[in-house]
Amino acid sequence: MSRLASLSRRPVWIPAVSVGEVILARTLLESLQDFFSNAGDRTDRAPHVVLSSTTPAGRDAAAAIQSPLLEGVFHFPIDWAPIVRRLLGRVNPSLFIAIETEIWPGLLRQCAQRQVPAIIVNGRISHRSHGRYRRFRGMLREPLGAVRLACMQTADDAERARSIGIPADRIVVTGNMKFDAAPPRDGADGSGSALPALPIPDGARVLVAGSTSEGEEEIVLDAFDRLAPRRAEGTILILAPRHRERFDAVARLLERRRLRFVRRSSATIGAPYDVLLLDSIGELADVYSRGQAAFVGGSLVPRGGQNLIEPAARGVPVLFGPHTENFAAVAQALLEAGAGFRVSGADDLASTWSLLLADTDRRQRAGNAARALIEAHRGATARTIRHILPFIG
Question: 192 or 381: which carries more pLDDT confidence?
Fold first, then answer.
C-alpha cells in the first residue's frame, strides 16, 4: 500500500480475486497501454491503475505484471464495510472496474455513496448465480446503482444483468476477453522455444489434466489406469491441481496409488515416471501445448468448469465433464466445431483419450478447429475499451 500515497492523481481501481482475474486485468492494461501509446495528443489521459487481489497466487501474478499504467498492487482480503471504507479513503479511485462475476456489494455500495462510477468488464452471470442475485435483488439495488456500464460476455449474461437490476441502457455485449487473454503461440504443437523446459521424455505422448478440483484427481487417475497399453507405449500424464494448497495432498494420493510420479518443483528429475505433478503457478497455459489432448477440470465435479479457452488456443483437443456453467457458451461452441469432447466419468474419459491418441488425423482436425474457433472470437478487449474510454481521464 505504500506506493499508493505517491499517486499524482486519482487511480482506476481493478480488484481481482485470483490468477484468472489478474490475467484479464493484465490483458486490459496491455490494451489500454497500446491505445494511449498510439493516441497522439491524448497520451496525458492514460490512467493510473491500482490492482488488488485476494489470494496469494493472485498477488504473485499481479506483482509480476509489467505495465507503465500500473501504479500499485495490494491485498484486498474481504468485502467488509470497515475495510472497504478505509481502502476507498486511501485509494480514492476515480473509477472502479470489476471483473467477471465479482459483484462486490460493500464496495459498490460505498462507490455509490461516494459517487465513484463502477464498470463491470467481461461480465458473466451463471444460471446458479442469477437465482441467488434475484433473491437478493432488493439488497442489491443500491450497490448496482453505482454500475454505470456493464460489458457482458453474451446476450444471456446481458439479460440476467438486466433482470437483477442493472438498467438496460447501461448494458452492452462485448464478448469474452479470455479469448484475447490466451495469445496465439508459434509452435503450438509443443515445439515452440517459449515453452517451459519440462522434463518430458523424448517421444512421449502427453495427456494434460489441468485445473483439477478435489475429488476429480481420483477420476482422472482411474481413467489413466485404464490406458495401460498406451502407457506401455510411452504415454504420460501431466496433472495440474487448480489450487497450490492441494499440491501436497495430490502428491500423497499419487503415492497411495503407487504411481511413478515426479513433482515439477523437484530440482533434478532423472527417474522414469508416469505422472508429472505440475506443482507450479503460471505454467499451465503453455503446458497445454505439450499435450496430445487436454482435460479441463472443475467439470467432472459441480464447480462450473475452468478455462476451456487456454488449451483450445494452443490447438489441443479439449475434454471436459458435464459441469461447464462457467464456460457454457465456449463449451457448446467447442462441441459444435468438433474441437471439444464432453465426458461423463473415468470410462468415458479413458475411451476418448484412447481414441484421440490412436487417431492422429482426428486429433489434428480437432486441434485445428479449436485454434480456429478461438481466433474467430478475439476482439472483446478492444470492444470493451471503446466503451470504457469515456469514463477514463
Answer: 381
